[in-house]
Amino acid sequence: MTNARTRTRPRDEEQTDEQTKDSGLSCPECGGHVVSEGSETVCGDCGLVVEEDQVDRGPEWRAFDAQEKNEKSRVGAPTTNTMHDKGLSTNIDWRNKDAYGNSLGSRQREKMQRLRKWNERFRTRDSKERNLKQALGEIDRMASALGLPDNVRETASVIYRRALNEDLLPGRSIEGVATSSVYAAARQAGVPRSLDEISDVSRVEKNEVARTYRYVVRELGLEVRPADPESYVPRFASGLDLSDEAEHRARALLQNAKEKGVHSGKSPVGLAAAAVYAASLLTNEKTTQAAVSDVADISEVTIRNRYHELLEAEDNLGLV
Questions:
Q1: Global confidence as pTM
Q2: Which long-range CB contacts under 8 A does 244-253 form with residues at least 24 apart?
Q3: What's the CA dihedral at 12, 17, 21, 26 to 10 degrees?
Q4: Count of CB atoms within 10 A of residue 15's CB?
C-alpha cells in the first residue's frame, strides 16, 4: 500500500509546454506516463501524485503572451563583446550618493574612491585586458561618430578579439587594427562607409588603415564582398533631403550601370554619388554637385566623370 495521495484530474485537460514537462519516469501504481507539473510529479493516467514539495525553479509569476513575459522577466543585461569583460564585472557608480540619493559623508567618499580604484585594477589585471579596453573604447567612439548600429559594433569587437587572440597586433597599432575592424564590420553588415569617412574619425592615417585592413582580412579569412554602390544611396539621398522617387531612380541608374559593366573598376562611392546627382536632375529636385560632394565626401570631378558614364549607359534618358 502506498502513502502517496491521489488527485482526480480530467484526462482531456490541456497542458501547455510551459506548465508540463516530461520527467522520464513511470507511475508506480499503474505504470502510466508521469509528468512534472510545478512542484509535483503526477501520473497523467491515474492522477497519482508520485512526488510533491519539489523545488520549483520556474518564475513565481505567470504570463499569457510574449510581451507580458518580457515585461515580467527580471534578468541582468546580456553579455556583450563591446566591453572588455563582456559586461560581467561590477561597476561602481561615480556619484557619491547612497541608494536613497543622499550624499555620502567624507569618510564614505574616501572609501568608495578606494573601492573604485581597486575595482578598476581588478577589471584590467593583465595587458590583454588593458589592450581590449582601449581598443573597444576606440571602436565605440568611431562607430558613434559614423552612426553605425549596435550589430556593427558587436561584429567589429569580435573581429578585434580574434585579431588579438591570433597575435596579429605585434608591429601594428591598436588604433589601426580597431579602425580596420570597424571598416570590415560595416561592409559585412551591408552599411559600408568609405575609407575616407573611416579615416576622418580614426586616429591613424588612411594608408595605414588600408594596409592593416588588408592584413586583417587576409589573416582572419574574413568574407568581405566588394561594396555595393546601391548601399550608399539611402544615406546620400537622406543627407540631401531627396524624395523616395529620386532614391528609386538612383538605384535604377546603378542597376543599369551594373548590367552594362560600367561599375567595374570604379569607386562605389563615386558611382553612388553620381547616381544620386543624376536622379535629382531627372526628378526635378535639382541639387548641386558641391552639395553631393559634401554629403558623399568625394570630389566634384569624380562626380562629373561618373555622371557622364552613367548617362551614356542609360537608355532613353531625357538628359544629354
A1: 0.63
A2: 245/283, 246/276, 246/279, 246/280, 246/282, 246/283, 246/285, 247/276, 247/279, 249/278, 249/279, 249/282, 249/283, 250/275, 250/276, 250/278, 250/279, 251/275, 253/278, 253/279, 253/310, 253/314
A3: 30
A4: 12
> Which residue is listed with cell 566588394?
226
- The closest of 181, 88, 188 to 143, measured between CA atoms, is 181
Strands of the sheet containing 20-26, edge to edge, are 20-26, 33-37, 40-43, 49-51
Please state, in angstroms and rounded to a whole number, the distance separating the CA atoms of residues 268 and 257. Answer: 11
Listed in sequence order, the DSSP H helices in the chain are: 66-72, 106-123, 127-146, 150-165, 174-188, 195-201, 206-220, 233-239, 244-260, 268-282, 289-296, 300-313
232: confidence class by pLDDT, cuts 50, 70, 90: confident
Predicted local confidence at residue 9, as pLDDT: 45
36 strand-pairing partners:
21, 41
- Segment (H or E) for 36: strand 33-37
How confident is residue 2, by pLDDT bands cut at 50, 70 and 90?
Answer: very low
Q: In the predicted model, what is the mean pLDDT of residues 17-46?
A: 70
Residue 146 grid coordinates: 559614423
CA distance 246 to 233: 10
Which sign, positive or negative, has the C-alpha torsion 123, 127, 129, 133? positive
**Do residues 7 and 42 make contact, with C-beta atoms less than 8 angstroms apart?**
yes
What the block records as the C-alpha cell of 175 is: 588604433
Question: Distance of CA 222 to CAs 20, 145, 207, Å?
Answer: 45, 24, 20
Dihedral angle sign, alpha carbons of residues 122, 127, 128, 133: positive
Residue 17 is placed in which grid cell?
509546454
